[in-house]
């Protein structure tokens, strides 16, 4: 077995390891772990601790993929409901659809018993409003939110503030390879913006025969390249894990517009090798790893380009 997750995964990583060791299906084990991440307010990019959109509303994205069946579930721009990854799993298990967004996702959550929650943490609200006060004129503040938001999308949205989605990849005791993600997305994003975390093939992909991949940071880049799918497809075509990730890195590097600086690719293969590569030079990006035979999880440093 192997479990790979990004640095923000710490609140739920051991929970997932314990469940994998107990023989649980990898997807359920990871969703249980991610639920703990989503409820940890000190993780400032996922769930309750995340940052709101421009209007001060929390909007969550999450996705899951069962690499054995290639079933997928995801939710996007989900308001007032957590845990988002568990809801994505419910979409996969209970609906003939892959993705629900916005009001439809919230309605489905309530139908199946998820309570509505206040998901805007006081400190996030304070920081959001302070940012608006800094950026908007007194006239704009007085009229807020009835002002055009589009001009703000290039001034107050902040790709630097959000470093990580949480992403979990595993190969479980039944040799199933699975992927799960969750995020609150870019700080101060335009309402309704989806990142790559709910987009299968971009933010996550899994195929039990070959491996899995998931990405963190600026989803706008990995959506343009279908990065997670590129990695797994390359392995299907016979590339090693290292070469598959390199191909995805090369594709992303060809993009001459957008913010590539923070993107991190996490990947595992069916031989339980792993690779984590970061585009951020000069800053140590960490990840969590556990494999059968290791006494406990290890925090390691990603490769940089
Ligand atoms: N990778 C997370 C996002 O772009 O929202």
From TrEMBL:
Gene3D superfamilies: (Glycosyl)asparaginase. Transmembrane segments: none annotated. GO terms for molecular function: hydrolase activity, acting on carbon-nitrogen (but not peptide) bonds, in linear amides. The record marks 164-165 as: Cleavage. GO terms for cellular component: cytoplasm. The active site is at 165 (nucleophile). It comes from the Bacteria. Pfam families: Asparaginase_2. Substrate binds at residues 193-196, 216-219. Signal peptide: none annotated. PANTHER family: L-ASPARAGINASE, N(4)-(BETA-N-ACETYLGLUCOSAMINYL)-L-ASPARAGINASE. This is L-asparaginase. It comes from Neomesorhizobium albiziae.
